[in-house]
Amino acid sequence: MAKIIQLIRKYWNIILFLMLEIFCIRLIIRSNSIQGVDMLNSSNAVAGFFYEKQNQVASYFQMGSVNKALVAENTRLKQELDGLKYFDTLQDVTSNVPLVVYDTIKVKTDSAALAAATDSAQSKPTIVQDIRPFGKPRIVKYASYKYIAAKVINNSVTNDRNNYITINKGSSDGIQKDMAVVTANGVVGRVAQVSKHYAVIISVLSSRPISSQVAGGNIGVSNWGGDAPDFVTMSQVDVRAAVRKGDTAYTTGYSYFPENIPVGIVTAVDTYKVNNTLNLKLKLSNNFRNLQYVYVVANQLGTEKQILEKAVSDKEKEAQQNAKKP
Amino acid sequence: MSIYLRNFLRYLFLVGIQVLLLNKLFLRWWANPSGFPTFVPFIYPLFIMLLPISTPIWFVLVSGFAVGLTVDMFMNTMGLHAAACVFMAFCRIAVLKTILPRKIYEYRNLSPSVKSMSWVPFLTYAAVLLLLHHIAYFLLEIWSLKAPMYFILKLFSSLVTSLIFVILYALLFSRSIDTQYNNLDLK
């Protein structure tokens, strides 16, 4: 016994070193799991306070570019709004609820829907999925989304695996975990951790893929390879898709993002011979080096969708387990 | 100023510089040309390097863990900096033993600095420890050797810039580093 204690005392430093390293490695492994960051992160009050103070000083130097971006966004929104008004008067529907349209033609042609419609009230509105009156205006269905503006107080692009952004709004402003985060230009990321006044976003520059579409609905998966913070790779695109350089890739509504938010512009197309799909190199439409303001998107129907999908996958798992048992 | 207070203030100061200044540099103009890997220079390992030479090893390890975890908290890289910093702290005594001409216990009340070690040994000491820290950090972060050139480029660009900042710190705060501590009772 005395010998063991002697041994421990002799190698005490190495034992301490190994213990600390094992603890660190455990922390790293846990923070790289699907659940994302936990415990200590920059959404806590101390880090948030310092970042906010630092940002108050630094943001003075970026006033000009922020103003320019806001004016450009305002112009774009005005134009979009005018387009909607024009469209609504053409369709002869009330213009203050532009996306809820009484889709009478569909009810008439679809016999099954007609039978259902006779049961329920005739005037039940259906949400129009695809509105393209002229050109290709891309409109988020804002019926089910709510936008919360927030200021970026810390941002990183240099990490090779996961990059995080800290914003100055938290649960007291209605932000919850897993909400999507966008700017006027395009996608930013997903809320990973929330405290009372701050939230940490795991940005697109991470190992989390985004479901995206290009060239009229060809679906693929965009993933950040880990090198330059300006590019992502979109893989698993159908080889027959007519994709050209300069096309824009948008999000699909399948994941946590709203539909038709720009992801990036195609800069290179190459065919992946192994499974005959296209690999597209996308230049991200956001400049992640100087993000200033972001919008957190609260999906009001999101939880319903998630619960439904989770129920299905749980049932699937149960069925698989039952199949294995006997 | 007592040795504990001085080192604690240095800890706060270095973490502040790292988190509020150096982490933000790349956002505007640092490492901007596309294709070149983005990187952050690290100055907070200097806290471990400047602890008095005769500090007990367990304390160096624990303080390395503490400073790493603080930076981790600010940078959302749970455990990465702490692991690299503990590794560096563990190697510190071996590097010191090889570089210093006399026995460790003879440098009772001194910090490793330009004055106590002169320029070349101090820079060798800083460069070797920073290199160890960077290798540990980038290996853990990238977690593959698929692109060795990328790894090496990132490692050395970060290392060189970090060293420049370390030299700047050693020049600017030489007086605070060179202070001899009297009635110090560290084993």
Keywords:
A: 326 residues; alpha+beta; 6-stranded antiparallel beta barrel; 34% helix; 26% strand; globular; B: 187 residues; mainly alpha; Arp2/3 complex 21 kDa subunit ARPC3; 0% strand
Describe the structure.
The complex is a heterodimer of chains A (326) and B (187). With 326 residues, chain A is of the alpha+beta class. Helix content of chain A is 34%, strand content 26%. Chain A has seven helices and 14 strands. Chain A has a six-stranded antiparallel β-barrel with strand order 3-4-7-6-5-14. In chain A, a hairpin with a 4-residue loop joins β5 and β6. About 14% of the residues of chain A have low confidence. Chain B is mostly helical. Chain B has one domain: Orthogonal Bundle (Arp2/3 complex 21 kDa subunit ARPC3), CATH 1.10.1760. In chain B, 66% of the residues lie in helices and 0% in strands. Chain B has eight helices and no strands. In chain B, α3 runs antiparallel to α4. The longest helix of chain B is centred in the C-terminal third of the chain and has 25 residues. Chain B starts with a helix and ends in a 9-residue tail after the last helix. At the A-B interface, α2 and α3 of A face α1, α3, α4 and α6 of B.
What is this entry, summarized?
With 326 residues, chain A is α+β, with helices and mostly antiparallel strands. Helices cover 34% and strands 26% of the residues of chain A. Chain A is globular, with a radius of gyration of 25 Å.
Topology:
The complex is a heterodimer of chains A (326) and B (187).
Chain A: H1 2-10, H2 12-31, H3 45-58, H4 63-91, E1 100-101, H5 104-109, H6 111-119, E2 126-127, E3 145-155, E4 164-167, E5 180-182, E6 187-194, E7 199-203, E8 210-214, E9 218-223, E10 231-238, E11 248-251, E12 262-272, E13 277-284, E14 293-299, H7 302-324
Antiparallel strand pairs in A: 1-2, 3-4, 3-14, 4-7, 5-6, 5-14, 6-7, 8-9, 8-11, 9-10, 10-13, 11-12, 12-13
Chain B: H1 3-25, H2 46-49, H3 57-75, H4 80-99, H5 114-117, H6 119-142, H7 148-172, H8 174-178
Helix pairs in contact in B: 1-3, 3-4, 4-6, 6-7
